[in-house]
Amino acid sequence: MKKISPVMAIGIFLLFTIFKAQAQTNTTWQTKAIETYHVTVAFSKTTNIIFPYSIVSVDIGSRDVLAQKAKGVENILQIKAAKDSFPQTNISIITADGKLTSFLVDYDNQPSVLNLALTGVGRQNIISIPSENINQEQMEHFAKMASESKSKARGIKDKTFGIRFKLNGIFIHEDIMLLRFNISNQTNINYDIDQLRLFIRDQKKSKRTATQEIEILPVLVQNNTSKVAGQSDNTIVFVVPKFTIPDKKYLAVQLMEKNGGRHLELHVKNKKIVKAVPID
Question: Could you tell me which residues come within 8 angstroms of residue 220 by beta carbon, excluding any fewer than 6 positions away?
């Protein structure tokens, strides 16, 4: 039997290594597209998406869309527009079963569906929940009553450069609270609204203390507008889930001008909230 020389052994080893590397290089990976769903959102209404498992993380493609988990539950995501109209964006959600769900998000002032539930194996299907469950008509009725009520809250106001902003009515009906705002433009320059948002914030005591805030998203906005014309005023009613404010916190209401500097903010204490006027 012939002996294999060291040089030949090294050659065989190198040849084997090359063939193995080529085999690994030629390995093909299969890709599978994850279905993307579509949802529309509005500035004045909240869209609810119900998942079969708890929500672990949410990634939003644009600041023009607001999102939060519904209070007290882990599998409902509430989304709405931060302003009137925006280019298409997306939102991605990972749930506790390890699945990724992706939505394309477009703006629609009157979304046809406000509640979605994901069902089926692999979540191939989305079904809508009947609108009767949220009683939209009833909320609109009470919002109109709040808008026309003569009852007034006092002392909650701010002003800057001819713009006056007031919270002049706080109302309650069972599990919904209605906040009535008035924006008065005493200048000849139109006031274009960029954002009108509500937050519960910590009272800042020290620069070393990190402050926290929770945004309250309205389920309905009555008489919503994106502009207050010069020398005019506008009344807007926010319908929100009922709430009170914990100790050492306050309700902040931000009104920001689009492409301008006339920004205003109201600070509301709990003693004002608990005096909400009932409407029936």
Answer: 44, 45, 136, 139, 140, 143, 238, 239
Which of 30-34, 37-41, 222-226, 244-248 is least confident? 30-34
Listed as own residue / partner, the contacts of 145-153 with beta carbons closer than 8 Å and 24 or more positions apart are 145/171, 145/279, 146/171, 146/178, 146/180, 146/222, 146/237, 146/279, 147/180, 147/222, 147/223, 147/235, 147/237, 149/180, 149/277, 149/279, 151/277, 153/272, 153/275
- State the CB neighbour count (10 A cutoff) for residue 101: 20
Q: Token digits for 129?
A: 């929940």
Which stretches within the chain are classed as H helix? 6-25, 136-148, 270-273
Shared domain check, 195 and 105: no
Out of 82, 107, 134, pick the residue that ends a domain.
Answer: 134
* Residue 80 CB neighbour total at 10 angstroms: 21
Residue type, 247: D
Instruction: Give the domain-ending residue among 91, 109, 134.
Output: 134
Q: Token pair 């527009």 is at which residue?
A: 81
121 CB contacts (<8 Å, ≥6 apart)? none
**267 and 174, same structural domain?**
yes
Largest CA distance in the chain: 112
CA dist 129 and 271 (Å) reads: 37
pTM over 0.85: no
Question: What is the extent of the structural domain holding 108?
Answer: 36-134
> Picking from 3-7, 164-168, 191-195, which range would have the lowest pLDDT averaged per residue?
3-7
Amino acid at 253: V
